[in-house]
Amino acid sequence: MRAAVQQEIGQDKLEVFDDVETVGFGPGKVKIRIKATGLCHSDVSAMSGVLPQPAPFVPGHEGAGEVLDVGDGVSGLAQGDRVLVCWLPACGTCPSCKRGQSQLCLTGFMNAGTPNFKRPGGDVFGFAGTGTFTEEVVVGAGCAVPIPDDVPYEIAALIGCGVTTGLGAVFNTAKVEAASSVAVIGCGGVGLSVVQGARAGGAAQIVAVDPVASRREAALRFGATEAVAPDGLADAKARITGGEGFDYVFEVVGKSATARTAYENTRRGGTLCVVGAGAMDDTFQVNMFELFFDEKRILPSLYGGGDVLRSYERSIALWRAGRIDLEGLITHRVRLTEINDALDQMRTGEALRTCIEL
Q: Residue 7 and residue 121: Cα distance in Å, rounded?
């Protein structure tokens, strides 16, 4: 079977092998034939070492496909079912799940330390316990979520991570109010999903901030009322908010510098929502006086900050109603053998979301 493999952390290219095998199929597991998978910036972060991940590994966590087989004890799934891959499944029994914070369940993270594949040279892991840059993958039954027949595989793949993360940050975490002012720093696939969520939620002003001109243009198509380069944010803040700052600012880059910029452009009593996944050694600093005096809410949002199954349903409902555009997020389509071209397109900002068709 073919799969794209990262041999060592820090390499910027993947190698496509045809001698990869799935491992671990058995009770409680599901084997999926991947039909489409998206390239998410988190995959690149894992390759570079920003996000911790044992190697060698198969990147990819934003996928959808068809169930090939189900292990003993699996209910609600059958051969031939169409599913999306949930990289952060809820166990339903841990303290976080019992509190209704299933996005904080550690079960999915623990899966990252168990190999999903093997090659003649030894074990191969799957990124975030999945690894969708492959023709087939074995995952826990909770990672396979059935999708309706009218949802194409490429759309389901996007809902599996980027769209859910962006929309969830708006609806679950920040709870954006109608007629509010919003700024979104970072306009890749997740940032544009934040833009679309803010529009669907009734925000009056949505300022998209990105250094790449094509992404700024895309943000306007997806509902931003204005799009500026980073050096234009101060002017937008002055014009739109009278210098007070935005009601909500979303940081969708994963850097302390942009998080600080986001904080400074949030009004007193407003909300800074941190969506970007950053490095463990990159420290965001706020002094104790401003933390107290400004009373700004700093809200991190992991995988949309809520029950992902409910978030999937919401994304599908909004897509069906024409309230969000998911097809438009896919700007490039490639085969698995072209994966390194897709990585280059993401790094330069040329691609919003690339669909890898298998």
A: 11
N residues, the chain: 358
The pTM of the full predicted model, rounded to 2 decimals, is: 0.95
Answer for the pair 131, 117: CB distance below 8 angstroms, yes or no. Answer: yes
Contact present, 332 and 354 (Cβ < 8 Å) = yes
Q: For the purposes of burial, counting CB atoms within 10 Å of the CB of 177, is it exposed (0-12), middle (13-18) or buried (19 or more)?
A: middle
Q: Is 328 exposed, middle or buried (0-12, 13-18, 19+ CB in 10 A)?
A: middle
Distances (CA, A) of 281 to 52, 223, 255: 12, 34, 10
- Distance (Å, whole) CA 1 – CA 181: 49
Structure tokens at 301: 């949002």
Question: Using an 8 Å Cβ cutoff, are 134 and 1 in contact?
Answer: yes
Helices (H), the chain: 41-48, 95-98, 107-111, 153-159, 162-168, 189-200, 213-221, 233-241, 256-264, 288-294, 308-320, 339-348
Q: Classify burial at 289, counting beta carbons within 10 Å of its beta carbon; exposed 0-12, middle 13-18, buried 19 or more.
A: exposed
> Both tokens of residue 106?
């550690």
Cis? peptide before 56, omega within 30° of 0:
yes
Q: Per residue in 53-102, pLDDT tens?
A: 999 999 999 999 999 999 999 999 999 999 999 999 998 899 999 999 99
| SS3 category, 139 | strand
